[in-house]
């Protein structure tokens, strides 16, 4: 079959170049512009990567128009219903669903690596108790390469898998300890008899004074939420991990960079911002339309947090599942869940008001993954400033799988975007007295 080409003609010079059209297995065809600069001397301009594929990938597919999200081809709805977070980690990292023995070995490998070097404990003491746990996460994860020098040959696929498993394994411990440090509570060590989600909840909430039983409802809800957050193709934090890793930096440094990128309220920080917004709405006693109007006002920086997405132009499939989990969890919790019911009802009502509004309709702004997740976290007893940490914990497998894919590509090169320079042209230095 002949290749499809797109011809770019420079009418100023009469030169032209034929660019190959690359065919994805799914999604829009992609024009390979690599020859453009060499042949015509032009860059392409695409701030925010609105139409640019920054890499190839076989890991995650999403169709924003249809609200589709698939990991390695498997629809997110099926994974959320039938799979487990550990199985999804294996799938993302290795490309296929595991056999029973493969999953067992993988889970054991994760459990065996979940402890932290004892010296990491003293690293926490350098932080103020009131530090945001995301700040602690960036620091501690970035420091891991100082504790784990072995298996850092990033060109060896087996060593990359060891680093990947270490990161997945240690992240719950690092996350839970960042919370306990802020509380002034003693650190709790991971336990091999608990699942990944149970272990995290145990390390967060167990007290040395009495036995702590993890609520199976919470563990199940957390496991599904982690599946939903595990990867999301080339978002800001994943692209940051790839860009950092492309300089051949170690994987811990690359993931620390990803955590930093995730922190912003336009990205993973939105789950925290949603709860602050819902609380403000409830405290103000003002009608929801007031906040919807503020979000529409271009002179007001207020936005409906948890609404809108760069790629999804219809329902975010993750939000649909999370809303359902929220509903089930609050119902199953009985009286304990009632205190969060008001928040949930306000969120659902806000969704209804916004989705009936022309501004939101015409811009295809729908609730995203962060809109309902915070209510579930609150009901589990997880404090507000840990929400984005949970996102980081769940996304680590996505970051490291994408990094592994990139490092395994012999053609992979350092990421080095170009720019459209609009500053001053050359001018002579002016001595101070002449300025
Ligand atoms: N509230 C009010 N208006 C909005 C919102 C919102 N939440 N989101 C987008 N818009 C408007 C925006 O003002 C713009 O209007 P106009 O065309 O008149 O200038 C239009 O919709 C397109 O928005 P954009 O900012 O150009 O879109 P983007 O793709 O650059 O930004 C976004 C996507 C997610 C950063 C943005 O929708 C947003 O800030 N949402 C609130 C924060 C949030 O919930 N973030 C979590 C994202 S999902 C999880 C994750 O990625 O981590």
Q: Would you write up a description of this structure?
A:
With 435 residues, the protein is mostly helical. Helix content is 53%, strand content 6%. It has helices at 34-40, 76-82, 85-94, 100-112, 118-124, 133-147, 157-183, 196-205, 216-229, 236-246, 251-262, 270-284, 288-296, 317-333, 335-355, 358-362, 370-379, 387-407, and strands at 5-9, 16-22, 30-31, 60-63, 68-71, 74-75. Helix 6 crosses helix 7 and helix 9 packs antiparallel against helix 14. The longest helix has 27 residues, at 157-183. The model has no long low-confidence stretch (mean pLDDT 95). It binds carboxymethyl coenzyme *A. Carboxymethyl coenzyme *A (CMC) binds at residues 235, 266-268, 270, 295, 303-310, 363, 365, 368-370.
The overall strand count is: 6
Using the CA coordinates, give the radius of gyration.
24 Å
Looking at the chains present, what oligomeric state does this protein adopt? single chain
Instruction: Strand order, main sheet: write it out.
Output: 1-2-3
